[in-house]
């Protein structure tokens, strides 16, 4: 997603500065782990330029502020708060899923242990609300409310995701609802906060939130595809990690519900309890594809992205900024990491 780094260097710099300033408030042991997680330092605490992630959500916040003709710099605290929540959820998610690799490096819990990683996640959670509150005024009050609702949605989505692993079958609409809660809600929050801090009307804030939610669901479809067919050298995650954990991801759920003759074999592999071997994982990926799961998620991602862009037409918005948002959405759906 070079568009993010090249086209928005100024915005990314402001986000990075805000994140670093906020993380510096943490107690030293937590600041050290946060700095590692954000890619600013290595495990020994020495400065490094490892990946901090794509910064998609905070960029969405800043671009959304522009669409309502606002000054994007006023939305930086909201963007930083959203990225803090995102990273807090990643740190906890890695613990829950026992994932050992993120952004090409060992996860925070792998390096510093589960207890400290939980505490750092919690600290980022608290920091996010501190930063929003410091913005002051009505924006801070409604922004904090929206962020808190979103954290509740994230928890609801994560709980559903975990429960799905224990269930033999999950209807696609339940999987979509889980993805809306786990992923789309934070993107919707990101764009809504941008419109709010940019001084948008309630109708504009709502339209931007819809945009972010639709894009977020498209993003999860693509993320789930990358979780199966992504190149680990590019994604920075372990190969087949979702299949290994028998995740009822969107393409897998679509495949299992397809009625195709290969469903029985896929269900048998997914229904077992032992560790899946490398050849079983490869076979599971082939079966998701032959049952149409890959195609279904790719189509859904494209349809949702088009619908997200179309929905913005209902409001008076700055056209150049809308173009920036929609091209960011398009690069999100075409991404490889
Ligand atoms: C919120 C209390 C509380 C707990 C957290 C763990 C959890 C509940 C929710 C999980 C949410 C989660 C991790 C959803 C997956 C979203 C997703 C696809 C993340 C990957 O986002 P990218 O690719 O990440 O934008 P980068 O690395 O670019 O920042």
Low-confidence stretches: none
Cross-sheet strand order for the largest sheet: 1-2
Provide the succession of SSEs: HHHHHEEHHHHHHHHHHHH
Structure class: mainly alpha
How many helices in DSSP terms?
A: 17
Measured as a percent range, the helix fraction is: over 70%
Bound molecules: geranylgeranyl diphosphate
The description of the largest β-sheet is: 2 strands, antiparallel
The CATH C-level name is: Mainly Alpha
Give the tally of structural domains: 1
First and last CA, distance:
8 Å
% residues in beta strands: under 5%
Full CATH superfamily name: Farnesyl Diphosphate Synthase
Count every beta strand, where a strand is a DSSP E run of 2 or more residues.
2
Report what the structure shows.
By secondary structure, this protein is mainly alpha-helical. It has a single domain (2-333), classed as Farnesyl Diphosphate Synthase, CATH 1.10.600.10. The protein is 73% helix and 1% strand. It is built from 17 helices and 2 strands. A two-stranded antiparallel ribbon has the order 1-2. Helix 5 (76-97) packs parallel to helix 8 and helix 13 crosses helix 15 (278-290). The longest helix has 30 residues, at 137-166. The mean pLDDT is 94. Geranylgeranyl diphosphate binds next to helix 5, helix 8, helix 9 and helix 10.
Summarize the structure.
Belongs to the FPP/GGPP synthase family. The chain is mostly helical and 337 residues long. It has helices spanning 2-7, 9-23, 28-37, 56-67, 76-97, 108-112, 114-135, 137-166, 172-197, 202-229, 232-235, 241-244, 250-256, 263-271, 278-290, 293-311, 319-333, and strands at 101-102, 105-106.
